[in-house]
């Protein structure tokens, strides 16, 4: 989650809604000190791309596909997502498409949340909420206190 | 949709609102109206019609006769047909056997016949026709427009398509189904600028070709549209000042997406004007004001992507009973807490696609 927050910080520096994520694979057996590798990561790029669908999760997934091609799907299916804010309905749908079931998020997303807040897109997802939520929220607050030059309604970019 | 005269669409509303609309339309068409939910009330016949005014005042001033807020559609007086006796609604009764005059009304006893228990419509009528029909059958009710529907955000309201809307929507919906049919039934999507009546972007599902599970038709179409908008904006900026290094990456991506779009346009034999007459990419915020046409009802990802992109209206040809998010499995556009809303239409008589 620290790495996801760092992606969020980076997004903030680019004047984007500061949400970040990492997809992680664990090697080794469960409960044994597993080795974690970051498969791919991303932060919001909605303003830069003038595209409201460029959320952190989509950006990270696209990056992996661009790097390794179609095998990205298998890699993602065995991965786990850490994201600073609850995935929205679109991203929750995308995660279901690529087969990511293990999702840990920081703060909830009561406007767009697709992991319980508005609807539950994937009832089979293994969800964990609230990890470092305060830090995710204060990152978002930093952004909203600052003026957002591109979007009329800053929430649109979430 | 074989013929332009068949352009008939059904708006996808929330389940609650859909039921309400159905009732409204049936009643307006003169079909039998839905029976209201009934409850018991106490009424009495006036012995002398000239006492109506006195009694109405007495009812107004007697707290135990007050009608609850949700029964504001009920009238107090029932003038029975052919100049027959006048009946008064005294109060709503909790106990069906209790026919005693409400407390505080005892002084009026000599002006009223024996109270009787009747059934009155508890539901609020949704149209004049419904109110009239209930009035005939049960007890006089008023149609109060402001109470008839659910209070809805502007984007969630029922929208009657104009004739020219229907013609345009029919045209593009046929175009998108034809595009899908000419590509082995792959999902297809169009984004249209409705005032200029031009296609801004046109896409197919490319999940198999690209080996990328997110490349659904609607996502591709949004990406194409945004790429075009961004590309135009960046080249306008480049004309004025040298482009900043940070924009180079997105410019490259925008260019790639645009090339993909053009190759599809060539492939489908439909070359569009690059200048988009009537469409101003520089001042377009996301997909504000644009309409989306889909051969198939979108999945949650695509539906929400359209919503995030501020699309104005969504039209789809076939429902997707397995995972459609705009009518079949979910109606995500009906959630009040979302910050943007669009209207969703589908064919009035959809033919489900076998897959
Ligand atoms: Zn999202
Ligand atoms: Zn989709």
Quick overview of this protein structure:
The complex is a heterodimer of chains A (158) and B (355). With 158 residues, chain A is α/β, with parallel strands linked by helices.
Describe the 3D structure:
Chain B: InterPro entries: CMP_dCMP_dom, Cytidine_deaminase-like. Chain B: This is tRNA-specific adenosine deaminase subunit TAD3. The complex is a heterodimer of chains A (158) and B (355). In chain A, 37% of the residues lie in helices and 21% in strands. Chain A is an alpha/beta fold. In chain A, helix 1 runs parallel beside helix 6. The radius of gyration of chain A is 15 Å and the shape is globular. The two termini of chain A are 18 Å apart. The C terminus of chain A is likely disordered. Chain B is of the alpha+beta class and 355 residues long. In chain B, the strands form two sheets. Chain B has a six-stranded mixed beta sheet. A four-stranded antiparallel beta sheet of chain B has the order 3-4-2-5, with helices on one face. Chains A and B meet through helix 3 and helix 5 of A and helix 7, helix 8 and helix 9 of B. The complex binds zinc ion (2 copies). One zinc ion (ZN) binds next to helix 9 of chain B.
